[in-house]
């Protein structure tokens, strides 16, 4: 009893010494710490929930990637099998391509041959066309020069003083000193694929070829005048040249043989080719051919 009394007395003494204001401050501090701990717990719970959501999303993404990888693996296996199946057709196509390449080369070679043949045929056709044109011109000329005039009345035929019937004509005057003849009428200067007078079998020669060309060109001119010049007009050609001043003018012309062709022989061939074609020596002196052409040439009315 005595001990219990001492303990009660001590408790009463300690309670008497406690400061209630200090106790209230401590309680407030404990409450503040408790509230802050609660806030921290709530924030921790929020972070944990966020991490849980992120982990769930990552798991879903991982599952989707696994499914995609599985599908890709299956697709890879299927494509590998398909490639193996296509290897044989690919080899067949390569072999077929090689055969087509060889065939294409053969066809190209044949095409080149046919093209060369076509070019040769075209060249030959052009040559034949030129010959046809020349033949047509010769025919037109023969029609003009060989036309038969109507017979004269008996009284006029017996009258020597009766005027001759009118006959149209075209006169061509050529200055032989001023111009050279085309080189392809010679043998040496004949370009490939052309026809020269020296390789014609009738032996007419370069002079005759020159006369024929002059006649053909004049005939073309007459036909192009739309009837202003009668097609029956005769063609008279006079070539004037100074033989002495140009002795070597025709040395480049050759016959089919090695003998050179002189200017005089060329003139003879030119004159003999057609009855109204003449190649004259204009005489010595400068500009003699010009003098003949400008006013000193006299043409007989009967011509």
Automatic annotation (TrEMBL):
Its domain of life reads Eukaryota
TM annotation in the entry: none
Q: What does the UniProt keyword field contain? A: Coiled coil
Q: Which residues form the DUF7923 domain?
A: 166-295
A Pfam family that this protein carries is: DUF7923
Q: Which residues form a coiled coil?
A: 27-61
- Which InterPro entries does this entry report, sorted A to Z? DUF7923
* PANTHER family associated with the record: CCCH ZINC FINGER DNA BINDING PROTEIN (AFU_ORTHOLOGUE AFUA_5G12760) (PTHR37543:SF1)
Q: What is this protein called?
A: DUF7923 domain-containing protein
Protein's organism: Cladophialophora yegresii CBS 114405
